[in-house]
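Data availability (excerpt). The following record was deposited with the supplementary files.
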Amino acid sequence: MGDGITVVASPKVKADDDGSEEFHRLRRSVLLPDTSAYPLGRAYIADHCANCLNPLPDGNEGLYCSDWCKETAGTVRYLRGANRDGRIDQPDVKEAIGIRLAFIMAGSYSALGRNLSPTTRAKVKDRDGGMCQSCGKPGSEIDHISGSSDEPTNLQLLCNECHRAKTMKNMIPAPDEEKALIAALFIERIVPDVPVLLADDEAEWQRAWSALKKERRQRLRDEIESMGINLAGLKTRAEWIVKRDAVLSERAQGQPAPSESLSASDGFNWDIGKDTFLEHLLNRSTR
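Predicted structure:
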């Protein structure tokens, strides 16, 4: 592990998750996925999470099963780049790494309830006049004053320096177990010349992820159409899955499947839920 990097943890995590064996098991699987079947490195399995290698639900639009896995892979790429070019020894980079590690140990930044809408961010920036509420310099970060409430009274605009300083002040030293897990992350995913996962490779992942996402989308469409289900006029994975499940349900019940010829041109609103869709089919069959 990089010398001088302070391994810290969020106080919220210490209070909420220390007693959860399931949380610790899941965290280890996210940080240290089993890649023993891929000794040549750059592991990637189609229709599996690019980070933990677990199967992806059909409805998942992306290449990760969760924000946790997405943030972990992004942190690994950042660490690999910083380690390779020497930035890992810079004080500000060490601090940034410590914060990023704390978040993935917590279950991702979003797990702390810190995702704000663009509208909320814009309102806070406008209210605070675009200036850091701590030092008066131009602000860029929306800070939760205390806890994770998104109420406007709990939000303030800070500059990068003040936000980073406040974040570090609120962190606590990580216990030995977490330090050991971070050390294992460095040994297994940061230090090796050949990345163990394709998603760990800074250069290759940037070139590959968009095509991989398109291929995943096309595979699902091909699979559904191979069942004889017409997807004409339907654009999203959610629409395809709703129609597939409805048609397969009708087939299993031995009923005629008028939905197999349905498309957007039938005037049906495919944005509504599955239950309403099935009700629509039943009404058609009784006309």
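Summary of structural features: The chain has a mean pLDDT of 82.
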